[in-house]
Design a protein that fits this description.
Number of helices: 9
Strand order of the largest sheet: 1-4-2-5-6
Radius of gyration: 16 Å
Shape: globular
Distance between the termini: 57 Å
Number of strands: 7
Helix content: 40-55%
Order of helices and strands: HHEHEHEEHEEHHEHH
Oligomer: single chain
Structural class: alpha/beta
Largest sheet: 5 strands, mixed
Length: 183
């Protein structure tokens, strides 16, 4: 097999697109735009305008569903949020993920899931899988809100409280009811 075909095979999506669509929808429903190509990644992160940019590497793993995505979703209801919101899906847009990791995080060990705040193409804060797994969505949201309040200046929330409730119907991240978990 020649190297072109090997590269083509390794860049194929690892998961069925239909299976991951609900996981994608959770983040896009609260305002995250998907970065599908390496050019999308460069357009989003290759800026030098002092804007804050949130990047979430979405994943099929339980820690992404149980706390990562819902933590981001809840945090984006804050009254101060990043200027731009983006997501990539681990195992799906492999070329875009490679560009993101190799160009914008060359000295950082990355993971899926992963949450990072950037300014001028440089990471300000990074939450790796170890910072997400085993932590509640509420705790991740609290940490993200503290970071947003310190580093960001764009007016939130990313979508209105009414739209958030209509979109999530009180359930998000593995279709978990956060309010129910507080009982």
């Amino acid at each position: 097999m020649d190297s072109y075909n090997l590269t083509k095979i390794t860049q194929q999506a690892s998961y069925d697109a239909v299976t991951v669509q609900p996981m994608r929808d959770e983040l896009t429903s609260v305002g995250c735009k998907e970065l599908i190509t390496p050019q999308d990644v460069d357009n989003a992160l290759g800026r030098n305008d002092d804007k804050t940019i949130l990047v979430v590497i979405n994943s099929v793993c339980g820690c992404s569903a149980g706390s990562g995505r819902p933590g981001v979703m809840i945090a984006l209801q804050n009254n101060i949020i990043p200027d731009a919101l983006y997501t990539l899906f681990g195992g799906m847009e492999k070329d875009a993920i490679d560009r993101y990791r190799n160009k914008y995080l060359p000295s950082h060990e990355t993971s899926s899931p992963h949450i990072a705040l950037f300014r001028n193409g440089e990471p300000v804060v990074i939450f790796k899988r170890a910072d997400i797994d085993g932590h509640s969505a509420e705790n991740i949201a609290i940490e993200l809100v503290a970071i947003f309040n310190k580093e960001c200046s764009s007016t939130g929330p990313s979508i209105s409280a009414k739209d958030f409730e209509n979109t999530t119907q009180g359930k998000y991240g593995c279709y978990t009811n956060i309010a129910k978990n507080k009982e």
